[in-house]
Structures are given as structure tokens and as C-alpha cells.
Amino acid sequence: MIGEGILSTNQRKHTYVRDQRTVGFYTDPTLCIGCKACEVACKEWNDVPDDGFRWSGNSYDHTDALGASTWRHVLFIEQDQPRGRQLAGPMSGDLLSDLTEHEDPFRWLFLSDVCKHCEEAGCLEACPTGSIIRTETQTVLVQNDICNGCGYCVVGCPFGVIDRRKKPLKDAGGAFKCTFCYDRQASGLVPACAKACPTESILFGPLDELRPHAAKRVEQLKAAGYPDAQNYDPVDTSVKGIHAFFLILGNPEAYGLPAKPEIPTIHLKASWTSAFLTAFGALGLSLLAFAFLK
Amino acid sequence: MPKPDRDPAFERRLDELRQEAKTQGRVEGRGVDIAGSPLPIAAVKNGPNGHGPNHRGKPGLERAVQSGADKPGYFGMPVIKPPVWTWEIPIYFFIGGLCGMAAVIALAATVFGQPEIVRAAMWIAAFGGVASPVLLIMDLGRPLLFFNMLRVFKLRSAMSMGVYILTPYGMTAIPGAMAVELAHWHLLPDGLWSTLLHLVAVTLTFAAGLSGMLLATYTGVLIGATAVPAWNRHRSLLPLHFGTAGMGSAVGLLGLFGYTLRPLAAIFWVTVAVETILWLWLMFRRHGPADRALHEGLSGHLLMPAEILSGPLSLVLVSVGWMQAAAVAFMLGSLLSRFGWVQAGKQSSKDPEAVFASQR
User: Fold this and answer.
1) What is the extent of the structural domain holding A288?
2) Which among B51, B58, B80, B346 is the top mutation candidate for probing chain A, defined by the most A β-carbons within 10 Å of its own β-carbon?
3) pLDDT surpasses 70 at A92
4) pLDDT tens string B75-118
5) Nearest CA in chain B to A4
């Protein structure tokens, strides 16, 4: 699967939409070179507008975050710890003293963040118009012509992915996020980001093939000196797993990912209980007041 | 949606991008700025945070201005998106609560034969039936598509449920008020038509009351069942808080209009007492970063006086018998508090520590 050429799922044509096969992305920061080809490919294919430049000062990343006009975002994370068995800094030739004195432990992590296409998606549950749907490949898609811009999906997403597009950008007022290149997939093509990725850090394929591959990749990295390698795929929370999942080094918070993301619908029961109790309480109070006081 | 005409050329473009990435190590495009952006030259020369070469005094690696290590999450960037709602929504929360609960008062007054109160309360209710949808539609990103709200019926979406509470509310409160008014003027001769009109007025008042009591409380569910930490932390408190504020404001407004019957005064007493308890709860039962937006920043400065106005201050004013002043304080507090809660949601969702504290 990994490897370029005709055999890579990142390059060949497919029939996943017709076969109704669940697809996913597996994004691996240990392979990412931070080139941002995925961001450019995404913007160009999907005609996502340029939402302006802001000098962030956050490493060399000026995209900041995912949003209505940013559907792929390469994070640049700088950490004061060694990356695997990496040697950094000037070398004197004496390995031991290099490691203890000259080595400046530092790792630069790149991760291409994207909509997670949750198994239980907060935005999809929140949408009151039915604009957000689940496709044949189990991805989550916003139908732009139906969305009326109520903004409820924005607060329904535990990952801060979907957002309402601001004026004066084109199609302003509607909610936007990654479409998993549904249009491309429907014609048998691979999502633009995955196709443009030069190192297959973004791996596209059927989810049931990606998950075992991901488990193997973590073992491989651990053996290669990355003790903190793990897959970020919250299957044991109410989100029940994500279809675009990630390998991460270190804790998920450093990547802006909540350790245990929860779908907001888990709060519905307690909240509606309170609403109904209050409503009937108010009704009862009014009836009692008028019944006993004249 | 498919754009097959773009395919052949675009597939070549993707291959080009990939080639460029491979050879250059970076790709730039419209709206995507990377290392080609203005570089933090000083940082490259001086090391991280300007403390010389680097923190161990070794020749510096090329690091940016800030490594982000001292900030929560990814450079302290928000983890979830703040609500996009503007001023219309807090005003809707206030009006929906007040007018919805006014319909409840109308219902109770109908049952126990207080026609004057029914009339006044139904006018207030009808005002809410007109103003609420207008405010909600104004807040939409695409107001002309508001009818799409009626495409689906979704139990798992509080927004969708709100649509199916507000729609019947408006469709009963507005004609209900008209029917009550017509019946009041005795325009129809006594007999079948007059009885029928009375029956219609009573039915519509009942329906408005039952949908109104949910209109006043569901807004707490609407913001409680979200990913916003300060809101979902208080998912049970919010419907009670909003409903109580709505009921107090409804009787308060009726009081200002001159309807000061004992049942209304009694209801006001209860709502003021409940609001005071909720104020105490919010003051003393704090949840660390998750709901610190309720106590800090702009939202804290809005919420604190707001909750005092409709809680303890109103209680004092009621106790000394200044009912009108209490009604004004209570309503002002409720209105401010709705703005405070929406602002707290914005602040809380921009606070990565709050999100991490609530999703751990």
C-alpha cells in the first residue's frame, strides 16, 4: 500500500463510492515534510477562497487553524525533545559528549490536520436543515445549496473544524469544511491532498485497511526509537472513532486535539430533563398561584 | 458537484504539486503561506524567545519566534470554534423566554378566569411569536434559506426541536391573541359564533402556553448540548436558569403594565428566589478552567452584575415592597445575563485549557 506508483492507494483510481466502502485518511507526522502541498492542492481543487494573510509567529505556520476556508492545515510543532534517535546540533565527533553536551534536543513535528469525519459526527447531528449528510463512503458532507448558515454545527464540532464563512468571501454565510473530495471520489479519483502528498504522509484508502496499517506503523516507530508514538483515533469516547485519523508523537493536546473528544449530543438527556422539569414546574407554579391566591 | 471537465488538466497539476514538494520541500499557493512568509529573522539569529543562540547557549537551530511550549495546545490557538451568533441571539433568548412564559401565565389565567390578565399576557406572547423568528432569521448566514429548517425533523438536534417549538408557538400565540382580543370586544352577537370564538381563543391560548413553556426553556438545551465548555458544564442549570428568568420577566412586565394581582406577585417571589439560589450556585460552585469564562473577562463582567440584578438585588427590592423597581432590575438582569452567557460561550471556546479540561 505504501509506496509510489500504480499500486499506491494514493495514486490509483478506485470505485469506493460505487462499492459503498468506508474510506479514511491516515496522516502520519513522522513522514510529513511540512511542504503544504496538501493545503495548496485542496484550495485549488475545491476553489476555496484565500481568507487573507496573518503573520502568526507560530513557527512557520501562518494558516493558524482549520476553518471555513482552510480544509487542510499543516501544523508546525516545535518541541524541546529529541525526535527518535535523532542527533541535532554541531557535532565534535565524540558521540557521547555530543549527546550529553552539544546535543540540543529538539524536534519539529508536522501534521496535516483535516476534518475527522467522525463515526458519530457532532456537526451532522446538530444540523437542523439536513444539509450535512453522510455519504456512501461514510464521510460527512455539507451540501452548500441547502445550508442556511444557522451556525449550530460550529458549536457542535468537538474539534473546531467546521465554521461559517465570513463576508466578503465567495459563498459567505454558509458552513464549510473538508468534503473528503466527494466530487473527485464520485468519479473514481483520490482526494486532492492525498494525491499531492509527496511522502504519503497523508494516506488515503479503505478504513478497514488503514487501521491495521496504522497499528503496524506505531509498532514500527516504537521499535525505531519513538516511544511516544500512538494513533489518535478516539474509538472509546462518544465520537466512536474518526475516519480521518492520525499518528501522533507525544500527547494529543500539543496538536490541538482533545484527548477524549465527546459528541455534544451526550448532554441532551440531562439538558432536556431540566428543560421539561422547568417547563412543567413553571406551568404548575402558575396554576397553583392562580388557584390559591385571588 | 463533479467537475469532470477539470479532471485531466487538474490531475497533471496535482502531479506537478507533488513534484514541486519533492524537489523544493515546500509549496506555496493562493492563500497558503509557509516558510516563504516573512521569516522571524531576529529569532533565527538569536534563537528562541530572543534569549541568545538557544536555551543552552549552543549555536542556534533555526527556530521561530515562539516555540509554543509555554502555551496550552497548539500555540494557544482555540481548539473549538467560537459560536458565530451575534446580538440577535441573546435578545431572542430574552424575548423567547419572556413571551413564552407570558403564554403560560395566559393559560393559567384562562383556567382560573382572569380575562384581563389573559388579554395582556397573550399580547405579550404574540409579540414574541413575531419577534423571535425575525431575530432568528436575521442571524442566519443565509436568511433567505430559512425555510430549509423545515426540511427535516431531528430529535437529536436541539436547533431542529427549537424550530418545531417556535413554529407552533407563533402559529398559536399570534392568532390566539387576536381571538382573545375579538372575544374581549364582544363584536359577535351572543350565540353559536361567540361561543365558537371563545372556544378558539381558549384552545389557542392553551396551545401557546404549552409550546411557550418549552420555548422559554429549550434555549438552555440549545446552548447546553454543545462542545462549548462553559455551556455544556451547565447543561442542566441553563434550562432552569433561562426558564426562571423568562417567567420572572413575564410577570415583571405584566406588573409594569399595572397587573399586580397576588398570584403574579407570588410567582415573581418564587422566580426571584430561584434566581438568587442560582446566583449563589454559580458564584461558589466553580469548575476551574472549564467554566472560568463565567467569572473572568468581558463575559464575567457581564454575568456578575446581571445575576446580581435578577437575583439578590431583586430579592431585596421585593422584600422592601418596591415591586416595580424589582421588576425592572429583574428584566434588565435577565437581558444582560443572556448577553453574558453568549459571550461566555465565545470566550470559553477560544480558551484551549477550558476545552481540554472538559474533554479529557
Assistant:
1) 269-294
2) B80
3) no
4) 999 999 999 999 999 999 999 999 999 999 999 999 999 999 99
5) B18
The pLDDT value recorded for residue A91 is 57
Could you tell me what percent of chain B has a pLDDT over 90? 74
A139 & A70 share domain: yes
**How close does chain B come to A245, measured CA to CA in Å?**
17
A163 and B28: CB-CB below 8 Å? no
Read off the C-alpha cell for B349: 471556546
Q: Which residue of B has its CA nearest to A146?
A: B148
Verify whether the Cβ–Cβ distance A36 to B68 is below 8 Å: no
Instruction: Based on the fold, state whether residues A53 and A122 are members of the same structural domain.
Output: yes
A4 part of a folded domain:
no
Global pTM value:
0.90
Residue B105 contacts A where some CB pair is shorter than 8 Å: yes
ipTM: 0.91
Question: Per the structure block, which three cell numbers stand in for B307?
Answer: 445575576
Domain boundaries along the sequence of chain B: 88-285+297-346
Helix (H, G, I), strand (E, B) or coil at A104: coil
Q: Which residue has the cell 467569572?
A: B295
Residue B33 in contact with partner chain A when CB distance is under 8 A:
yes
**8 Å CB contact of B58 and A90:** yes
CATH architecture assignment, domain B88-285+297-346: Up-down Bundle (1.20)
> Chain A residues with CB inside 8 Å of B3's CB?
183
> What pLDDT does A93 receive?
61
Start-to-end CA span in chain A (Å): 81
Instruction: Return the residue in A35, A63, A64, A133 with the most chain B beta carbons within 10 A, the one to mutate for interface testing.
Output: A35
Query: How many structural domains are present in chain A?
Result: 2
Which positions in chain A touch B4 (Cβ < 8 Å)?
A: 187
- Tell which residue, B170, B337, B316, B314, has the closest CA to residue B248: B314
Residues linked to residue A232 through DSSP beta bridges, in sequence order: A246
What is the DSSP secondary-structure string of A199-238?
Answer: S-SEEEEEHHHHHHHHHHHHHHHHHTT-TTEEEE--TTST
pLDDT < 50 stretches in chain B? 1, 36-66
Number of cross-chain residue pairs from A and B with Cβ atoms under 8 Å apart: 383
Percent share of chain B, pLDDT over 70: 88
| CB contact (8 A) between residue A148 and residue B140 | yes
pLDDT, tens digit (0-9, with 9 covering 90-100), for A227-280: 899 999 999 999 999 999 999 999 999 999 999 999 999 999 999 999 999 999
- Pairwise CA distance, residues A184 & B3, whole Å: 8
The neighbour count for residue A89, using CB atoms within 10 Å, is: 18
